[in-house]
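hey m, so remember when u said the tokens were messed up on ur end? i reran from scratch. heres the input so u can diff it against urs
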Amino acid sequence: MMICMSKVRKAVNAVYESLADPDDGCFGLWINCLWHEYDTLDTFEEQKEAFFFLLQRLLDDGKVKLIRPGVDVLWRDGNPPASGLTINDPETHWDAPTDEIIAWLRERWPEKAKDMHDAELNSWFFTIPPLIWKGKDGMWHGS
């Protein structure tokens, strides 16, 4: 199936500022917040491409980063991670080139997912590295 990337870019560009707004939008939320339903996109494949384009743009603009794969920074039941690291420790950030990060995520995309609300897709969002957002204060924020 042929995807019209100009249509995908236009759809993402129309909502980019509102989704990236540190006072609102998806700021501080999990990566699945970027899995946005675009009224102007017709297919699941277009939605998928919009997700990756949006993530790429946020990464390129320095608004978000992902935690390096395998690094534990998640608090559980009020307890800090065993690593003692936080999302504001630079060594936890995945500082690879954006294209490499997007390729890594695409390789792990659930191939059987066929629609926006697919259970396998929903699970995928919680198996990939956490997303963190750069705040106005220069600190990194996540949920």
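this time it looks ok to me. The radius of gyration is 15 Å. if urs says something different then somethings off w ur setup not the seq
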